[in-house]
Amino acid sequence: MMNGDCRQLARFLSRLWLGVMLMLVMLNTALAMVPVSEAQQTDTILQAFPDATRVAEKEPLDGDDILIRRVFAGDKEIGYAFNTNDVVNIPAYSGKPINTLIVMDPDGQLVATRVLEHHEPILLVGIPEQKLFDFTDKYQGLNVTDQVRVGAGNNENVRNVDVVSGATVTVMVVNEAIMRAARKVARHLNIAGLSKLAVIPPATVKPDVFSKADWIQLTGDGSIRRLALQRKDIDEAFVGTKAENQAAKTPADAEKEFIELYYAPLDIPTVGRNLLGDTQYDWLMGELNPGDSAIAVMGEGEYSFKGNGYVRGGIFDRTQLQQSGKVISFHDTDYYRLDDVYIDGFPGFREMAIFVIRDQYDFDPGTAWQLELLVRRQIGALDSVFTSFYGDYLTPEQYLLRPEPVAPVAEAEPEALWVSIWREKAFQIGVLSVALLVLFIIIFIQDVLVRYPRLMHGLRHGYLVFTVVFIGWYALGQLSVVNVFTFVHAFQGDFQWDLFLLDPMLFILWGFVAMTMLLWGRGIFCGWLCPFGALQELINEAARRLKIKQYEIPFAVHERLWALKYVILLALFAVSLESLSEAERYSEVEPFKTAFLLQFNREWGYVLYAVALLVINIFTRKVYCRYICPLGAALAIPARLRLFDWLKRRKECGQPCKVCANECEIQAIHPDGSINANECHQCLDCQVTYYRNDKCPPLVVKARKRAKQQAAMAKIETLDVTDSAAVPNA
Predict the structure, then answer these.
(1) Kind and range of the H or E element at 30?
(2) Beta strand 147-150 pairing with 158-161
(3) Contact 78/72 with Cβ under 8 angstroms?
(4) Is the overall model pTM greater than 0.85, yes or no?
(5) Average pLDDT of 21-36?
């Protein structure tokens, strides 16, 4: 490449960089949230209660660390107002709580909800704040006794609030904070039927109560329950969603049976023995551990209640139970095939299964529970919407033994939010864990794999596609320098592991990156696990195959440009010392949120910036990674303590051989042949060349010498044979 071309490219990059960054700074400044003042909060409370004449100052409840404001109409107490931060402390994605005002009437109804302050980076610089405000508005009219889920559900016993795309963790924290704070205040005020509760031990099944019965009798008395759905029921549930256009085309199709389910607990002898027979029932009871329960689910129709999710991820993603706000999911280890049913009058079903409810869920057979059937519709390559249908079950009293309640105690706190998030993302966690194990093996046996260039390149390109599609777009597992700042600042305050456990994908990735960074350096992440880096590499690889001209920056210029990312990192870190939220806004120098979290669905300035980086990458590989990325710089600093350096070099490398240095697309190999480990992305191309005797010059020379020696030896042997043949026998 000519020096003139280099200068033109450098001028173009610098002008584009300055222009786009100026535009991003202007956008970020406009997006900052101003906290709601006390006067504005009072106005919100008065608007919620038009008859109110006075709003009292904050006061503690029962000496507890809970602050509320009472609302009066004359001398009559007509409501209560409180901030979630004054009741519970649940950190969100940014590490700080999302403070929300809740206004509640004496019946426990939420009259008004309003976000007072937040520091969520994905809202400040990605998703409009209005989406968060609209989300909290949906709680108006709900009651503290309602079961509220973020996601989907159409059962009257479970209230649904739609998730904000790209901010799942944030809205789950908001839901948890609002409902937990409201219930905690209601218990202290003894309203909505909530108070300090008596502990009622779970009921037990009477093991000796058995009577012979047929299918008609057990379905008739409610021992076996039924859930039947037609296609029109499914279509109605998806009305108002992006999947409503998949409705049945004709009235006849709408009347078709979608699924007919029958379900019943098997550890009740009258149900289990009649269905399974004595031998199979005794076997099943022997398989159950103390505290376990089992149910039978039998279905007919076009929809499978099992699906195939348990094959991919070990979890049944269509069938689960709910009881008292708990979600009970089933894994492949909780499943048994049900082949033989012996009850008289049994109609037969296409699909039958036994599911075991493990003792960890504290399942109570004496409390009502619901069978939840999840129905999903695909609306794109990666996106889908789903809804739920519920079948109720209440065990007939003749089968139960109920113990007496014990002394009243305060209601126990629900399980940590991160536990439920990890349970819901079991499939993603499983796939990512296997993928990271595969990557560890690839790096560990690299000396073997690089001897097979086609296999090595195939593995690498396949893994890069997985990184972009699964880690980036599906699991939203793109790491960010914001995570680094959050971690550093967490140590300065009240460090809580719960904060980092809220996103299992990021937690697992950071754990793996930390391990490999200390073993081999930053290259494992930058070269294999960074979705934006992988996307750049795949685009550039396609450009090279299409013979698009590549521009290589002179090494002297490159050596000065790669220091720019360290300057950006230090500037962001300095800003974070003053204000973490400001640093989060300026960290939009990373195009990660645009490309993966929001999938280019945001303001045009951010999209232009991300697309410009990808377009530049067509002509020069990974410009962003090499010169701009503050995350790469942050990883390179501790990576200097790496324990191993497995990249092999020869004494001829650099002098005179420069093959690897010329072929390294990110210019991590110096002209003298040494590898700059802080810039190396561990693509292993130089190691492939290291073992190729048709490409590595020192090996080529050795091969030629060996060939000459073999030719000379062959010639000598030929002469010896000829001379021997010319001498007559003695």
Answers:
(1) helix 3-31
(2) parallel
(3) yes
(4) no
(5) 49
